[in-house]
Model the fold of this input.
Amino acid sequence: MIINSKNQDVPSSHIIWLSFFAFLVTIQFAVPAGWIFHFFPAHSWLTNVIFPEWSFIVRPEHEISLYRWIVLMAIGIQIGIFAFFRKTIKRVDFLSGLKPFLIVEFSLTALILAALFEIAVYGERPELAETALLWLMIIAAANKIFWPSIRRLASLMGRLAINPSNASVIKPLASMSFVVLLIAMIYLPNPEACLARMFMGEQLHHYDSYIMAPGWAHMSGLRLNMDVISQYGVGMPIVLSELTRFFGGFSYLSVLHVLTVMMILYFIGSFIFLRQWLNSALLAMTGTLFALKIHMFHTGIFPFIFTLPSTTVSRYVFDLPVFFLLYYHIRTGNRVLPLLAAILCGIAIFYVTSTGMCLALALAAYITAHLLTEHLRPKVFNGIKDLRYLFFLAAAVVLSTLVCFLMAQGHSFFSKEFAYNMREFNQYFLSGFGTMPIYESLQEHNYLANLMGFVIPLVYAVTMTIVSAWIYRREVKDEHLMAVVISLYGLLMYHYYIARSAVTSYYVVAIPYVFICCYWLKIAAGQISVKAQRWVYTGLFILSFYALVTTHNFVTYPNLINVSRNPIVDSRLVHFVPKINVSYFGHVYHNASRLPAQLFTEQDEGLKTEKDFASDNELKSFYKEHFDFSKDVAMIDHFTGPNEKVALISSFETRILMQAKRKPFFYYFPLIISRPMKMHMFATSSLYTLDHYNKTIAQLDQQKPQYIFIERTFYLARYLPSNYPVVDGFVPLMSYVLSKYSAYAQNGGYLITLKRNDETPPKEGKP
Done:
């Protein structure tokens, strides 16, 4: 015991809390102590005498000395603290003054330990965490010196915040500030640099296949899933490409603007919906930050969400409007609202068929719940005359879907070919294409991820069961039915994770899960006082905010509040690809096999890493230069007409055809998975099956394009031996093309022109 016999009347609780403070101070002092030890390299006399084969065992360190120093320091700090508080420790109100101070000190200590953790985890680029650690140490020192002033200021601000007379001003101001914060977190001030990163990292492959290729086909006047494939439905590429008209026309940059604005509006809408439904702005803020973190900044998004646009909310933007309409129908009983929701469900089916069907089934469950529940039934059915209303609801879904498809496809909507093409990729998906077993994460020892994969649907199922019973027994208000609807919608959307059980796939469709978590928090908070609720919500908001802003994907996201002026190439922020630990730029092909170097005149493949760029603007300049195919476009313009479909077999075929203002020829467009143009290697095609290959060959046989444009490197396929390994459809495709076509013109930047042999005598050309 530190105190003497004269102080036996000191309450033991005072001693415990003061000892806890001494423990916190010891941790804070241990950090600079370790930093000082770092400047004195450890040496060992064994280094000079140990045999070489055992030298790996000798790893001298200061940890034992540091441990002893920390123990002595802890004893000294505790003695000093008890000596400092010896006159006040007996006071009855001692803890009332100490506890707020300890809360701040504990928070600072936790942040200091978190910074140390970040330094250890991101050991190859610890600069940001080291800077944060320095500032935290400064703040911790300032807190001890200026605590009386800090407490008075905090007390004043607290009284202003909880004063009922200020609520009418503070609440709207807080909500508006939160909306501004959301915009600052999501908005991309330098979108071209973001495109440059996608170009350098994975050659815009996912960006092209998701939206750019089908979007350009639509803007060129072609029909999706008839003339050109659209893997994610017919409506989504049409809607997104048409929205680019507000941003200067269809381009890579304008599409990124559309996706960004869509993301901003969706999360603002999520905040508004949660606030209305749960009647708590603070809980709505907490839920929105949590949703933002798990959706936009989870570990599966690399390096940021727009690299994989299929994981963005652009796939299911219609669910929030439908939730709003159903919520206000519950509150008002206005029967027009479900009709509007039905129309939106039909549009959603046209937009992305799979997610639209999930939304339509959730609406059907909502109506069914009303029909089965006596006190809810009058809102949708109040006698036999209302059968027409129920018919109109079903018809609204079907007719709005039909109208949208007819406007987009015309008479081809009723063709067998369109029906087959619409379900082609769904059939592949259901047959195992791209899927993975749900137990794979267990085999990879990702136990938390696997647990979450089961927890999320369990939460949905439990919510549906319990809340449905509450509503049926009239134990809760009718608005609680939204929890059932959202849970069912979440379960239906969860098919994505069940089929593709990647470690982080559940995050892609987990926003309904966040809504349900907030719902149960609201239920639980109803058991405590309003004042206690405020403290709980505030603590959860701080925790959510901290979890978001300390996530490495958030720290590196190039938004308005990023710590760097060059967040794309800043060495403090640069992403290294997990597991293989290489630069993100060019990581896809860093170990790819190459063709013999002697086949190429130019030996430099032009591969760059982030270290090759001094700033984001320098990266943008490089991107603009290498994403410009003017010479190839001039050659295509020379040999084809403005309304002609162009048979192009090349990386970046979407960009080249957009720049040339030409329609794509091939149904499977883009036909080639892009790789850097100067690489000494062939490409991989997007022909996944023999049916894809046969359909592509049939197009060439039936339509017989006079010219085909291919990369110079691909022309080397004529030298391939007969036993060259066929790993996908690329080699047989090129073998077919080169058997029917010969080099005709070679004045492009990367491309050469092939002309069909039966049109003119073949000309031998060299790439």
About this structure: The longest strand covers residues 751-756. The chain is about 60% helix and 5% strand. The CA atoms of residues 171 and 177 lie 10 Å apart. Strands lie at 645-649, 663-664, 672-673, 684-685, 707-711, 741-745, 751-756.
